[in-house]
Amino acid sequence: MGLIFRDYADSSISSILDQFAGWRIRNKLIVTILPPVILILLLTGFVSNWFSSQFLSLALERSSRLICLAQAHEIEQFIERSRLDLIALAQSAISVDEARKFLENHKRFGTNYYRELAFIGTDNPNRFFLLNLGPSIFEIRSDTISDVKPNPLIMFEHIRTLKPDQIYLSDISSTFYPLPMDQNGHVLSSVVFRMAAPIITADGKTQGFIILGLDGYHLRNILSLYNSNQSPLHAFPRTSEIRYSYVFDRRGWILFQSETPDDKFAELSTERIRQGMSGTLGKPGFENAFRPGSEYETFWKIVAGVQSGQVGSISVNEKGNETQFLSDNSCLAYAPVRFGTHSSADREIVFGIAYMDRSRLKLAAQMRQYDILLIITICSALIITMAIILIGRRITRPIFNLAQSVSQLDMSKPLKEISVPELDMETAMLKNAINRMILAMKNQLTEIRLKDRHIQVAEQREKVRLEDELPDMPSHSSAVLNELVGFGNSLESLKSEILKASSVDADVLIIGETGTGKQLTAEAIHYNSRRRESPFITLNCGALDENLLLDALYGHIKGAFSDAKTDRNGAFLAANQGTLFLDEIGNASPRVQQALLRTLSIQKIKPLGSDQEIDIDVRLISATNEDLKSLIDRGIFREDLYFRLKVISITTPPLRDHKEDIPALVDCFIRDASEKMQKKDIGLSKGALERLKNYNWPGNVRELKNCITRAVAMVESDVIQTEDIRLEEIKTNGIDETKAVTPAPERKTSPKRRPQKKQPPTQVKKGLNDRQLKALPVIARKGEMTRQEYQQLFGHELTDRTSLYDLQTMVKMGFLKRTGNGKNTRYVSTELFLQLEAEKLP
Questions:
Q1: Sequence-distant (≥ 6) Cβ neighbours of residue 381 within 8 angstroms
Q2: pLDDT for res 732
Q3: What pLDDT was estimated at residue 535?
Q4: Inter-CA distances, 570 with 187, 599, 603, 605, Å
Q5: How far is 529 from 523, CA to CA, in rounded Å?
Q6: What three-state secondary structure class fits 514?
Q7: What is the average pLDDT score of the chain?
Q8: Cα-flanking dihedrals φ and ψ of residue 71, to 5°?
């Protein structure tokens, strides 16, 4: 089990060290430096707090001793004054009147702390006992003096041995007087301790003795005064903790405790001291006295200290027991009260005073010191962290810059030596080592590039097997359908539409760009239809003017016009029972369109100059590279003729949309050209094939065929290389803007044709599609637009070719004017466009 735990601990430590090794230098400095610094600060704070607590405890102890000594001194002074007064009275026998006058004078001058004044003569009749209680001074009859409890006469046994100027001092006791009860029904009583002095005649005989009873409440009030804010030692406000003093005698009896200064006449009590303590309550002669049990070692320790005349203090806890913990805030100070019975005699200890000082000063100081320590620690941690960050940044910045420069090296570009500021020797050494490595890499990369270049050139010049470039053909596909070579999805869809159109005897409209194989499509429809054995006649509507086109379509009879020497059958008659293919039907004039519409409606023709209509059975296939709907909207092409022609519509895809058929087409064109030019085994290199695939072919399949034919004719070896492929490219972002859209040939206008009136802007607007209408407000705001901006206006689903077609259509319609070439091509608004916008059209 121990072995498993050891292995687990080793693996955990290893994992932590691995993670630590991957940290940044700044984080490592923070983790390694900050904790020890914080630990040192905390240890320093705790040590300083311990010493400061010791000194605070010492200060509190001295303060407690001072207050305790001041109380003891005040009581000693009070007893000493009373002794002097008693000695003055004992110089000779006094009368009752003199004694009463003495008490009244003290009461008048505010020193009303004498409760008894008595003279006890050796002769029984020569006695008096005055009692100072309340506002009056009472005299107790001589025959009832013995009823005073405790009896003052018993003091005679202690006094007879006294010498002149010697004093006897009794214990404090509760005294009861044989007087009528007060108004509350209580027996008159007081707490006094008595002084007695003998009156000795000149011949040395004792004439009697004088008794002076001191008020015990006055002693209590002295303690209360020094425990209040009225104390002569009050120098600063104290906290609200309870502090008290108490007086105990030499035998350990606690006589009374301090109260508040306002409670001058409250009963003497030991209630606060007795809380939580057990012991004996009440001693003979003083029922409120309390003597703790022997288990309270702290109390008996101070009693022993007072008995030996010591002044000291003890740290105690809340229960009053001695403790050494710094968290305790109570100090119990003690001091003896001494009294000398004779001026020349040593003073004896008669009482002890204890002062319990509770203060939260030390705790408050500790808490404040902890707060300061916390603030200092946090500030120090922040300062050290910032210093480490700044120093770490200063140290690691060159390394970071160096690493960043290395990471920014582009392996596809020529490598350059790294140049960063050198702030230290290590960074300079590392930079030099990296630059040496870069230099070596540059040499190696140069050699590798040269070798790769030789390999690529060799691979590009190798003869490619075009049949290997052809993927597996679909099972339902025919690679060649009436010279329609290819098997891509677009071409397969075209072949499927051709076969469907061939199966029915309906007119067909073929739409597609120039060179996409509209002629081949028409031928494929014919030769796969039921009319395959009948003639297939082709006529280009854009190559003839209006009159020649009508003559070519319908023919004429001899003498129809001056040059009509013989009869001529037109294309309709020539294609009777077969197929007539009309290419570029969008260039037909309105007159030709009207004639075609009539012929298609009644299936009859009338040759020029003839009055006889001839029945015909001809399938008409039309082709156009223009948008007939746009021509209809512009009023150039008849809508009813459009729907007559478009019984079946087939669109021939541009070559850029089925480049996967380029290898098959190239293979076919190379074989045809090689056979015609009597060149054998002509092949195509890999580089040449890649160039053909990457070209957009604005002239479509026709341009590709011409390119291959030219290459076969001009090649001097048996492999057509990349440099043998001649392409005319004027590109913007890969699009040949000058050739991507082939505008329709200009229509040749017959001399007899009426010039069309200029359409108003509201009518011209019908020739725009939805995209062009949406772009008009944007062009109006900007004044111009590029092809890329037009394409971004409608999203990526709009092709480059369609964007160019829309813009060039608006150029032909007179809305825009094309300026610049290549990347600088702009389409700027014209006067017609501004007129259109002025009519607030969408």
A1: 34, 37, 38
A2: 40
A3: 93
A4: 165, 13, 14, 9
A5: 10
A6: coil
A7: 82
A8: -65, -45
